[in-house]
Design goal:
With 182 residues, the chain is α+β, with helices and mostly antiparallel strands. The protein contains five helices and seven strands; from the N terminus they run H-E-H-H-E-E-E-H-E-H-E-E. A seven-stranded mixed β-sheet has the order 1-2-3-4-5-7-6. Strand 4, helix 4 and strand 5 form a beta-alpha-beta unit.
Length: 182
Amino acid sequence: MTAAQEDLVRAREELTDSPDLLEIDTPRVEDGAAIWRIARDSEVLDLNSSYSYLLWCRDFAATSVVARGPDGEPIAFVTGYVRPDRPEALVVWQVAVDREHRGRGLAGVLLDALTAKVTGGRGVREIETTITPDNTASDRLFTSYARRHDAELRREVLFDGRLFPEGTHQPEVLYRIGPLAA
């Protein structure tokens, strides 16, 4: 077992024993506002409109997961979708953990839960995401994920920063991880 796999096993055990986490679940429309707040409070993610998170919970719930706290409210989420032109690829859109629950491996646990959810019945064999060069936490999360799953990680610039209208956006680097075991 690699060090990354051992870390994830330890994180799963800690979360299972923790009273702060009840379950990993499929998001519901009612979760949209909480997911929006978690994304906003991350101070790292590009924040979408609150409406888009409601739609996400309706239209892409099958390719997303939330972690629920003791009160049933989301404390973390991973949103994703299957690429229409590459149905073997799951695009992970956003990953965020509420501030008070960070540092315990919850993002990795959720990413693994989502992978388990979509690799079997949907034929997903690859994960894609984009990360800006300054987002070291996401780089570590997805690099560790690739190691845990013994999958190749390839990186290339997908969108140069000059393509974004605000003029200050960093490039979005595409991370492709796969092939993943079914």
